[in-house]
Amino acid sequence: MITARRTALLAASVLLVAACGSDEKSRTLSGYELDPPPSVAALSLPDVSDGGTEFDFVADDGRLLIVYFGYTSCPDVCPTTLAELKKALKQVGDDASKVDLAMITIDPDRDTDEIVAQYVQSFIPGAHALRTTDEPALEATAAAFGASYSVETTAEGEIEVGHSAAMYVVDSAGDVVLTWPFGIPADGIATDLEILFDRSAS
Question: Which domain holds residue 20?
Fold first, then answer.
């Protein structure tokens, strides 16, 4: 009887520890933070989904801005990333209304204003489509976020595009407070957004 009781108590304690560990894990960020966080507040690019007005990389008070570098002809990485973000915003419920998305095309020669705007807004209605043919400005913006890309034409005339596939979360100070590498699923993105909003409310 004593052995059975001890066994039951041990099992209960194991379950308690497991539950606590699971809860703690659920509150761990899937993305990574840099210390100090990079500042992008001084940068801006034309928002072609808003008539070409300059778009500052600063979230409005109480909101978060997600920034993504990609292109509309991307066969897999870009649509996969944006689809996961779309799922994540559904999961966070009302807080989704406090999240903005800005996609910067790295292939402006093929991505016209209309094409990039329609593309990103097909995933996230109201998203900002950013496009510039000023290569130095685009390169400087990418470097500030820690992003990289290349657009090259082969000898056969084919265009080859390569790019890093992270998403970046910017706060109301214009700081990059979180980076999501490619491959983080919707659940991880949603949890991270909840954590960030909880932090800002405390």
Answer: 1-29
pLDDT digits (tens, 9 = 90+) for 75-111: 999 999 999 999 999 999 999 999 999 999 999 999 9
Q: 157-198 pLDDT, tens per residue? A: 889 999 999 999 999 999 999 999 999 999 999 999 999 999
Question: Which residue is it, tokens 């539950």?
Answer: 19
Rounded to two decimals, the pTM is 0.86
* Phi, psi dihedral angles at 133 (to 5 degrees): -100, 5
Between the alpha carbon of residue 135 and those of residues 115, 132, 139, 173, the distances in Å are: 19, 7, 6, 26
Q: Are residues 22 and 97 in the same domain?
A: no
